[in-house]
Amino acid sequence: MTKQWMPLTDPQWDQSAGAPVFNLKRKRKHDLRQILDAILWLLRTGCQWRNLPSEWPHWQAVYYYFDQWKHQQLLAQINAALNEEDRIRTGKEPLPSPGCADSQSVKLHPMIWKDRGLDANKRVNGRKRLFLVDTQGRVWVVLVHTANGADGPAATALIGDLLWRTGERLEKVFGDQAYNGVFAQALGERGIDFEKASRPESAQGFVPVAKRWVVERTIAWRNFFRRIVKDYEYTVASSVSWLYLANIQIMLQRIDHQYQTLFPNTF
């Protein structure tokens, strides 16, 4: 994984905007490629909107597009399309059959009180992120809620989105004991198996669990994006959008690496 920001290459832009998501035919004041570059730069550096450097379009213009794409679910659509492309590249079916669920509690900016809670177990005052990924760590759906919310009941809200993204191919979801309740029951009602995958009770410290450690790795990858190491967003919808953008960035890097391997003399 590339740990610093780099502008979008032509293959990356073609893959992200080439998907029938952006309307590139209409005349615009700002270049959408530059807007997306600016948003990904913010994701990497953690800069405030109002402190966006002058070489980028005005911060209000960049924020306008981010807000529009957030409400139109365009970022979620791009994320799903890039996930499918990356799975095909690795010789897999476009949609996953097994999935993995886990959560991460993160601190919330001290000036924000909306959707704030205390995770007493991890001693985190903020919000909780729930990830549903495939067995290679690609993020398919995300939910952000108060940190004091229980994982299992909260995860049931994601089942509809998960089925919409994966279709009828999803067969099983792995998770720990927190999901072995109402979430597992809700999956069963839709014909999806739930399998508890937890470390042995006698084990101490981190223990890789087969079929489920990948979601822990996915959560760890968020540390490469300063905008999301802590939650700075007033709304959970914005938090979700940044998490999708982080996965989009990772998928674009993989796609760019593939093109450089196939066509080394064009770069």
Automatic annotation (TrEMBL):
Limits of the Insertion element IS402-like domain: 8-78
A Pfam family that the UniProt record links to this protein: DDE_Tnp_1
Domain Transposase IS4-like positions: 96-243
Protein name in UniProt: IS5 family transposase
Organism: Fibrella forsythiae
